Amino acid sequence: MPPVSFRTALTLRWTLTFGAILALASAATYVGTRTFLLADLDAQLQTLALTERASMSDAGLHIHDDVQDTPSGTGTSTKFVQLLHQSGQVLLASRVLGQRPPLVSPADSRVAAGGQTLYREALVNQHPGRLIVIPMHKDGVAYALAVGVPLDGVSHTLRRLAWLLTAVAGVGLLATGLLGATLATRALRPIAHITERAAAIARGQFDARLAAPVVMDEMGQMTALLNDMLDRLQAALDANRRFAADAAHELRSPLTAMLGEIDVTLRRPRTEAQYRESLTFVRDQTEQLGLLFENLLLLVRAQEGEPPTTHHIPLGEVLAEEVARLSTLAAVQGVTLTVGSLSALTVRADRPLLARAFANVLRNAIRYNRAGGTVTVSLETVSDPGTQDGVCAEVLVADTGCGIPDVDHERVFERFYRTDTARSRHTGGTGLGLPIAREVLRLFGGTIRVRHSRPGHGTTVELRLPAQRA
Known about the structure:
A hairpin with a 3-residue loop joins β11 and β12 (458-469). The protein is rod-shaped, with a radius of gyration of 50 Å. It has nine helices and twelve strands. By secondary structure, it is an alpha+beta fold. α4 packs antiparallel against α5 (272-303). The strands form two sheets. Strands 6, 7, 8, 9, 10, 11 and 12 form a seven-stranded mixed beta sheet that branches. A five-stranded antiparallel beta sheet has the order 2-1-5-4-3. The chain has three domains: 7-157, PAS domain (Beta-Lactamase, 2-Layer Sandwich), CATH 3.30.450; 218-299, Orthogonal Bundle (Helix Hairpins), CATH 1.10.287.130; 309-469, Histidine kinase-like ATPase, C-terminal domain (Heat Shock Protein 90, 2-Layer Sandwich), CATH 3.30.565.
């Protein structure tokens, strides 16, 4: 059996639910109408019985057999009366009853003769009837007076009401089913459109988008959110494509250089010095490849949000260690590396990762500086209500290098991105230093940005981390 579509299932559930409500409403209407008709009939039966009892009390025990205009629904209908002794014996009866046994049981006769009013139903000449039994006293003797009318009119009215309710329910159920199918079709039309576009995206049409919503209802909000999600996925896909292309290019360059160097070396015999020079070149390229692989692995792990083990570490101490470790590189580049004020702050982070982030920023400031330039490192305390302790550590790395254009302030944190002036390949960088620093700081709740930069005059990079006072 093929599976039922969601639209069909929704229509069936709607129809069955409405059908159940309609059935309950029809049943309540039928029961309520029957109750009201019988209550009205009982009230009029009481009037008839009181009239009959008053007539017997005034003129002696007798029964009026004339045709009465009763509320039974037929306009004219014969009433029937029985005068019962409290023992249950029939003393007087209407002609229509003939020699019929008592209409009520002896027990009911005793109860009614004792002063209670009872309502009962009985079958009279194969027709259902409704009767009232009231007490009556004559000459010191207690009697039970039973007065009733046929229920043919009420039964006829209820039968017609039942047929009417059944017809209304059937027509209503059919109309509900059609309406439910129409509403389900209209309600699911946007979802069908979304499914169609999703299938197109799955087939490779990654630029496909949903039609812009006309009304920002629930479906319109979902459509807008899906379009936003598709835009983000498209951006992530484009970034991954660029990353793959850039990574392939970065890996190809040292491999091509090594293969070329090896091919040139093997063309003819070389001296020991020439072989040493070639091996040194290959070794340098291999180190570059190793650094690139290491940076790529670190970047992927940081972007996947792999939680590192964190400890409270003194931030100034980590900065001072990295400045001391990179002082040799600064001296080779002809750059002066100085340390400004270092506030006594601690941060919760992984020490090796945090040191790697600081080292990457410092290497950039040294490599892309000018000969005779300076790099200044400082650590200040900044108020930040958004942090747990209300303070934030602000690290500033200022250099006197070639600077970064305004349009590239954010792009320098993209993987493998290099500006035309500050990121030339001859510096030996992999284009991953600042992206790694940003991802590492993100793991510890921090941020990094280019605070200000002037081409030809230098750059200041700002790093911030939630901190506590030492």
